[in-house]
Design goal:
This protein is α/β, with parallel strands linked by helices. The longest helix has 18 residues. It has ten helices and twelve strands. It is globular, with a radius of gyration of 18 Å.
Length: 275
């Protein structure tokens, strides 16, 4: 069965997370094709990992002052500031013949598809190895609440710095993985959204992020658009995995579910500030 490719364009944080969950729910129905979705964010937003404590780890006042939305993801991991990026999501049944049994192995598979697209654009990308993701000591670099201060297993790097940050959840027999491909990167803005002791601590984190993360624009030394990256993924992702990609859109049922989830879950403090 070919995979469905949905280019959703730009939406707000509530809509983006609601659509990803609606696609996850849709996979529980027979006949729904695996789906690769591409999208952007307006306004900018911080997405919290499922297990993160909102008030403890995110500077909610700073986000409000800057017009940055805050939403909680279904997936784990650390906080991500979504701004100048292309985000992807993949929803597929766990019993699909292509899906490896472990999260790490599936990270490798999906990263191969994304890396093929980025190499087509001229990026010299690698994948972080499980041991390398933690450094020589086996401890992650800074322990901050921000995602891009260290690569995880098989995440995509360029020049030794993290370029793509991803997170995955498996729920009721369905896998959802989504991640950010940085087009440009503002470490000071990321640090401003984190809950830290003082301005000096935020400055230190910004310095760490500047050393540990890289954008596609910086790596290629040119302006890279979301449309350019989306087109490359459309061309290269399927062949890298040995699958076909067919352009599509949400079904009426998925659209209905996404509106319901937006209203009842992702726009509610009860979910976004759950912890």
């Amino acid at each position: 069965m070919p995979w469905r490719l949905i280019d959703s364009g730009v939406a707000d944080a509530v809509t983006n997370m609601a659509v990803d969950e609606a696609l996850l729910l849709s996979q529980q129905q027979d006949g729904t094709p695996p789906t690769l979705r591409l999208y952007g964010w307006r306004p900018a937003a911080v997405s919290l990992g499922y297990f993160q404590k909102a008030a403890k780890e995110i500077d909610l006042d700073a986000c409000r002052e800057r017009g940055i939305d805050v939403v909680r993801r279904l997936t784990g991991g650390r906080a991500v500031l979504h701004d100048a990026e292309l985000t992807y999501s993949i929803t597929i049944r766990e019993d699909h013949p292509l899906v490896p049994p472990t999260i790490t192995a599936s990270y490798l598979m999906f990263s191969n598809g994304l890396a093929a697209a980025l190499r087509e654009l001229g990026a010299e990308v690698q994948m972080s190895l499980p041991r390398a993701a933690y450094g020589q000591s086996g401890v992650k670099s800074s322990g901050s609440a921000a995602c891009f201060d260290a690569p995880s297993h098989y995440e995509i790097t360029a020049a030794g710095r993290k370029l793509v940050g991803s997170a995955q959840v498996r729920k009721d027999g369905v896998l959802l993985q989504h991640g950010s491909i940085l087009l440009t990167f503002d470490p000071e803005m990321v640090a401003a959204t984190m809950k830290l002791a003082d301005r000096e601590a935020k400055s230190r984190l910004a310095g760490i992020l500047a050393r540990k993360a890289i954008s596609l624009g910086e790596h290629l030394n040119r302006t890279v658009t979301a449309a350019e990256v989306a087109a490359a993924i459309g061309r290269a992702f399927g062949p890298a995995l040995g699958v076909g990609l067919v352009p599509g859109c949400l079904t009426p049922g998925e659209a209905t579910d996404s509106r319901r989830l937006a209203a009842e879950k992702y726009s509610q403090d009860a979910w976004n500030q759950l912890r």
